[in-house]
Design goal:
- The structure holds 2 protein chains of 2 kinds.
- By secondary structure, chain A is an alpha/beta fold.
- Helix content of chain A is 35%, strand content 28%.
- In chain A, a hairpin with a 2-residue loop joins strand 4 and strand 5.
- Chain A is elongated, with a radius of gyration of 24 Å.
- Chain B is mainly α.
- The longest helix of chain B is centred in the middle third of the chain and has 29 residues.
- The model of chain B has no long low-confidence stretch (mean pLDDT 90).
- Chain B has one domain.
- Chain B is built from 11 helices and no strands.
- Classes of the chains: A alpha/beta, B mainly alpha.
Chain lengths: 309, 251
């Protein structure tokens, strides 16, 4: 199955600044791909190049099999975009905005109306469909933008910070809808600042720093990869000697903290199995066992050079 | 359905035109400005030149009306939409830059023709005989497209500050009116004035309107229509090419 997105050496220069510097990655069909990075790292510029809003100065972007330089209209017909700023026409009603999208995507009037009603219902806007968008809250505007992006049932959805600054209700509604869409086969390309969101939602994430891609992997693997040693916290229902624990080959360092043992290990799986064997040997039961992998926040900060290790 | 096909893109341009009309043109102040601006210019000139025949003055008024209305709003649409980020919304839809420009032009053409129809009705109500209705209709349609292309050409500088474009627009539009035989008949212009007048598409439109109402024109009708057609094609082509180059710099 061909990739939904293939970026090869994508480059964008503004004046003397290289905003995106030879970025290459691919997004598989059916996955949720998170594109993370600090402000000004080049996330939005990359998204704009992928969606054909601005042309790259170098490299190629192939979306759903179409080269964005030569066949942008064909590609745009099959994907939807939720940009960073909610950009519905505020002088039009939600319904008029959706009908405009229907016409711009070549949908028949009846089909567009049916889809619009369905989406406004799902997103909780049906009752206010005839109200001008200027009276909408930020969350309502963002939900409308999502409806506008989904009207033509795209195979691929680009979202640039879709939940930024939204209330909890709107955030949950949008994230639930994204999960449902993905389960139905829609590929999702998501840029976000919210590490928790990326961690829970994304199959893989790419991290961009100063215009360059610095990491690309599944969130768990990314978290695991930033440290050679992983921390494990364990407690037993009876005393297990420090010597016994320290004697385990897999354990690198060990320290006591209350009724728990904190240890660093190189191979988490081997360490857990060794701890279970040790507990059996001492006739003890494991009361708690936690693997303390770094959070995606920590991985992000480490990889973008914005935090201390 | 081929979304990139010509017919499909024309349909989508029509959707953009309807959106423009709804958002930008069907506003009280815009409609009032569209009618008042040329009427007041006309009245000011009427008071200062009472010896000119009514047919000449009304023809000039029709010329000004179409020129000002067809170029009134279109230069500011891109800056407005650029600052509101709605232009980015259009750019991410399956439409070409040419389709967006063409959609804006259609709205401008319809607005220009609509307001000009009112001015023509005033001329007829004042008792002017319409001698060549088909010529007038052809001239209005051609000139409306030409002036809309000029309006879109004025929007080429990639700024998202509407006042910058409106200032540039006024700097170009007003001098163009004064060199186009609107206020002074072409036959009374000095040689240098005539040399300037032939460079303005408004000259040929005003000449055609006069022909439609009086049966007399300075240039042969074929020359007027031909020149207007050449200006229309040239301005439209240049507008499309330049917007394709500058569109991404608005985002």
């Amino acid at each position: 199955m061909p990739d939904a997105i293939e970026a090869r050496d994508l480059t964008k220069v503004f004046g003397h600044t290289t905003a995106v510097d030879r970025v290459s990655f691919s997004v598989r069909q059916g996955e949720i791909f998170g594109f993370l990075g600090p402000n000004g790292a080049g996330k939005t510029t990359t998204t704009r190049m992928l969606t054909g809003v601005i042309p790259p100065d170098g490299g190629t972007a192939t979306v759903l099999g179409y080269d964005m330089r030569t066949d942008p209209v064909q590609a745009k017909q099959r994907f939807g975009v939720v940009p960073e700023t909610a950009n519905a026409y505020t002088d039009l009603t939600a319904w008029q905005n959706l009908m405009l999208m229907g016409e711009l995507y070549g949908l028949g009037r009846a089909h567009a109306a049916e889809r619009a009603s369905e989406l406004l219902g799902v997103l909780g806007l049906l009752e206010r469909k005839d109200q001008k968008v200027q009276a909408y809250s930020k969350g309502m505007k963002q939900r409308l933008i999502l409806a506008m992006a989904l009207l033509h049932e795209p195979e691929l959805l680009f979202l640039d910070e879709p939940t930024s600054g939204l209330d909890v209700q709107s955030t949950h509604l949008i994230l639930d809808l994204l999960r449902t869409l993905n389960q139905a086969g829609t590929t999702i390309f998501l840029t976000t600042h919210n590490m928790e969101e990326a961690n829970r939602l994304c199959d893989r994430v790419g991290i961009i720093r100063a215009g360059q891609l610095v990491a690309l992997d599944a969130p768990e693997r990314l978290k695991a990869a930033i440290d050679r040693f992983h921390r494990i916290e364990v407690s037993f229902d009876r005393e297990v000697s420090a010597g016994g624990l320290a004697a385990l080959e897999v354990v690198h360092t060990i320290a006591r903290e209350g009724d728990k043992w904190l240890m660093t290990v190189e191979d988490t799986d081997a360490a857990i199995q060794a701890l279970a064997a040790l507990a059996r040997e001492h006739g003890a039961a494991i009361v708690a066992l936690n693997t303390l992998a770094p959070s995606l926040d920590e991985a992000f900060l480490r990889l973008t050079g914005e935090g201390t290790s | 359905m081929n979304p990139a096909g010509l017919l499909e893109q024309v349909r989508r341009a029509w959707a953009i035109a309807k959106k423009d009309i709804r958002i930008y043109y069907l506003k009280g102040p815009v409609l009032i400005f569209g009618v008042f601006m040329p009427v007041f210019l006309f009245l000011a000139f009427l008071m200062g030149s009472r010896q000119l025949p009514l047919a000449f003055l009304v023809s000039g008024l029709i010329g000004m009306t179409l020129f000002f209305t067809a170029t009134a709003v279109s230069p500011a649409i891109f800056p407005w939409e650029g600052s509101a980020k709605t232009l980015e919304r259009l750019a991410s839809c399956p439409v070409t830059v040419e389709t967006i420009v063409f959609g804006d032009m259609i709205a401008s053409v319809l607005f220009g023709i609509g307001i000009t129809a009112v001015t023509i009705a005033i001329g007829l109500a004042l008792g002017l005989p319409l001698l060549h209705g088909v010529t007038l209709a052809a001239a209005v349609l051609l000139a409306a497209v030409c002036f809309s292309a000029i309006g879109m050409l004025l929007a080429v500088p990639p700024t998202n500050v509407p006042s910058n474009i409106m200032m540039l627009s006024s700097l170009i539009k007003f001098p163009l009116v004064f060199i186009s035989g609107i206020f002074v008949p072409l036959e009374q212009l000095p040689t240098w004035g005539l040399a300037l007048a032939v460079c303005s598409p408004l000259t040929y439109f005003a000449d055609l309107v006069r022909y439609a109402f009086t049966g007399v024109s300075y240039f042969p009708v074929g020359i007027d229509l031909g020149a207007l057609a050449v200006f229309t094609l040239a301005f439209t082509a240049v507008t499309m090419v330049l917007h394709r180059r500058t569109m991404s710099r608005r985002m």
